[in-house]
Protein 1
Amino acid sequence: MGRLDAFLRQFREQEQKLTVERREKTQCPYCSMQCTMYLHKKHSPYSSRYQVSPNREDPVVQGRLCVKGMQAHVHALDRNRLKSPLLRRNGKLEPVSWEEAMDWFRRKVTDTQRQAGRDAVAVYGGGSLTNEEAYLLGKFARIGLGTCYIDYNGRFCMSSAATAANQAFGVDRGMTAPLSDIPRAGCIIVAGANIAECQPTMMPYLRRAKANGAVLIVIDPRKTPTAKLADIHLAVRPGGDVALVNGILKVIVEEGYTDEAFLRNHTTGGEALMDYLQSVSIGEAARESGVPAEEIIRTARAYGEAETGWVLTARGVEQHATGVQNVRNFINLILLTGKIGGVGSGYGAVTGQGNGQGGREHGQKADQLPGYRRIDEPEHRRAVAEVWGVKESDLPGSGVSAFEMFSLALERAIRGMVILSSNPLVSSPDVGFVEKALKQLDFLVVIDLFLSETAEMADLVLPGSSYLEDEGTMTNLEGRVTLRRAVKKLPGTAKPDWVILGEMARVLGKGKYFSYSSPEKIFDELRCASRGGIADYSGISYGRIEEEGGVFWPCSRKDTPGEARLFTDRRFFHSDGRARLTPVPHVSLPEPTNDEYPLVLTTGRLMPHYLSGAQTRRTPDLNGKAPEPFLYMHPDRAKRCGLENGQEAHIVSRRGEMVLRVKLTSGIREDTVFGPMHWGGEQCINRLTLPELDPDSRMPSFKACAVRVTPVKVKGIPKISSMQGERSG
Ligand code: SF4
């Protein structure tokens, strides 16, 4: 053995002796499954190494993790994390102290509000915040800034399902029963949800249901990995969901699958729906939806004949200008057949973001106060004002939805904006418009982990906390409240998001309303503020969550369990206890195809990435699996367009244009192309998407806009206007 080998062996032995290993329980920051895991840190004077192992005691996923969860810690440990505040000077972002940053913030807010009123400063939140931070952000907007303008990126995620569930059931909790109920279903309809890629650890529930004999029906314009598992795959035309479901409802009624006693005793609106369905023809439904009549009939019979059934919807159904009506029609199907409240039956909106559920309950929505209370209800306002120690008249009124805030920025009604953990310059529809709006602001403050595309436009960037450093509760897609402890120190001078919000309030002279010593203290206040609301968390505590492995809401008493299954007594949350059916006529897409724009563009997620990609594009093992976005296209359509696999295509909508390489797949409708949503700059698919908003939920029409696709070599293509450069992860 040479001297070098001997030295290395000695060094390794020494390092091993000095290595300290710690194991901490944490929770994936990505999708709404919120899988728990252990983070192992091996630390010696010479190196630190991290590894992840599953938590087999997890009551929801029993030790399963997907590729994103296994790699989640990588972005949190990235050395390019923001470590100090950055302030724009002479056009460049430069590190400054927190004192300087906060002083600048105070002056900007004070000057702007003095000149243009309190509502001139807006707040934009995110669906990955903890419940405590979502709650605090709502309070910061209303009390710290005194503005009515607050909304969040969940508007682009769950708002249609939430509105539809509120209208139909009087409550919006993602799932009406726990995931463990799904394997008991006789038939499962999965509509517009690519669970295999977006919530991979949920798939075993569907597989178990199938093994138990359930018929699995997947409705999606693409043959996704989820659709490949289906017994029946309905390749619906984007925008055809209502027509498709009307066809199914027609068969349900005509062939006697309705539950008359349930309809009579527990619902209203059934007669109007039945009357309307008389005018529906299966042939018309087939034409409008693009699904053959025999498949519609087969689906109706499979669901109608099953004793029990679940319907799961997600963004494919919800991200439309008719998103609420699309979901209402699926709920019509559930209510007509009475498949709700009992074992093996229910409805689930498969939430996208990590805290998509809790994030929409406690006040970061334009019209909402904690506990799912309404800001325009005097009684609700009084209840929350009392907890906050202010007069009811001090609370502002309703604001506007996320995209509408950008319109107001362009009109100069909003002049300053604070964005927390969100990247709207990638995730909003028509990002060219959003970029113009952000440029109109007098000041933009972004709190984030990295210089995201949006942060790069900011005047002040504040370094916030990752999931490993941030303590708080999250509510998973079932409505189960979980607790994630902080397991790591923050880098540099970065601070927990809740601390940053408290400091911002303090410099604005509102510190006495934000003097919390820990996230648990914020949660205790949230419990009081939610007491008596629909999303009542008052009986939930950190101690209970840890002891019980999570607690379902509503939970109004410390000594009773939360309600894992809703509507067991067939009473719904409307004052008369009845669920609402409603006729839903089919309407055409807001932007129909024509000779100039002959294809429908639909958008969505890829397995290795999450939302705007700000974290996953910075994770080499995830980014390596999908380093660039492609345009997915049917080979026959590509041939007609003169395109081959891998060739660059020029994609144009009425709002913008871009170039992507084409990936050919027979698993997509010929009239539809698909683009993933995880990239910014010139690769941002939202350069093309349509900001037509649903009238009730204010959800944009991400899932359908008209485009044309041509080979890049075609003469006369205008040069693509340059947007902000893409940051690769
Ligand atoms: Fe679990 Fe979702 Fe994280 Fe995957 S991304 S590990 S399914 S929480």
Note: The first strand starts at residue 20 and ends at 27.
Protein 2
Amino acid sequence: MKHFLLTATFTCCILASAGVSAQDRDVIAGIPVNYDESMAGDWQATLPDLLTLNNGKPVTTARQWYRQRRPEVLRIVEENQYGRWPARKAKVRYEIAEDLGLGGTAVRKQVTLHFGKDADGPRADVLIYLPKDAEAPVPLLLNLSFTPNNLTVADPGIKPGRRWDAAGRRYVEAETPADGPKHGLDSTIRKFLDAGYGFATVCYTDFEPDVNHAAKYGVRGLWLKDGQEEPAGDDEWGAISAWAWGVSNIIDYFEKDDDIDASRIALTGCSRLGKTTLWAGARDSRIAVVIPSCSGEGGAALSRRNYGETVAHLTEGTRFPYQFSRNYAGWAGKVEQMPMDAHFVIALVAPRPLLLSTGSTDNWSDPRGEFLAAVEAGPVYELLGRDDLGTNVMPAAETPIFNTLGYVMHEGGHGVLPQDWDYYLEFLKLYL
Ligand code: GCU
């Protein structure tokens, strides 16, 4: 249990340095923050309808959803929020090492994806654990991590990963502490392995650094022309799309690995990686189960609710505009005019199982806004013959709704708490 708690604390520390300590302060980046439920505004009045086509006609069949409305919704979210990524695939080379890990109890694969033609181009290290005695390809949970693999799992023999040195504007090797990482996910991983699931983890900054003006150092750089610093179009990909693109490339690898059942892949990540998880799940229907944690504003929380973080906070110049398409910042201060809201992104995952994981005191991320977005996406799940949340009354903390469209809120703040991993495992047992 101790490990788990430390992991959660560690995640929170990282997030605190990323700005989450801002929680409950009244003004962030010069913009007031509202935490008064009675002031959240009449968000429903202008909420775009998921089941009405752009031409005003109603969507009444699953076929219409898949053929007409879903592509419209995808385009709206892509252009206005996360940005579209290139249709052409990158050249990817795999470097694979396999041995036993976790004290000889698990198959361990370390797969490096090298992107593009240059030997020193972007690359991502994926650490994969599989149950040792599996007789058939196994389903697997892919975890998006804030830390390089050798700092995510305490297990001798993990290749040192890299972290982005913001001052030096370069990647540097992340040294493994002599006594291993203090906050490893190893006992979490063992639980998944014992239940017959594989567990993989990757550090998101391998795909691209998480700072402004860094496109050229990451995978987006592969499409930039000489001298070009950023994608040119206002609807082109931001960093979240770059990280989600990375996920799709990992799934391409899973499809080639005979030990992995690529039709049963789940994805999780927290905070900005919760946003990434949701968007990756929306974009790539090979992700069979989608578990975004504390994704908040710009993720699963309704932007029209004026509660906690807003689009204005998220895209303010010194904060996170680079994570989105340039168009997204244009909606700051006029969210009531946006052609989409968070229920659009959620509905793009339908009919696949989706578990929204939140925290009862994570006000900055607006857990109620996530619940309400899921309620609003419910009709799409229903149209496609799957169960929605089954209620529009928000459940208390630690009272999960494990429907196909699911919701669980831990008692506590921003981050992944010990019990969350147990909830995720339970959800996988139901749906993967
Ligand atoms: C900031 C940001 C959030 C984001 C979080 C994180 O707090 O405002 O939107 O989810 O950082 O990713 O750490």
Note: The chain is about 30% helix and 20% strand.
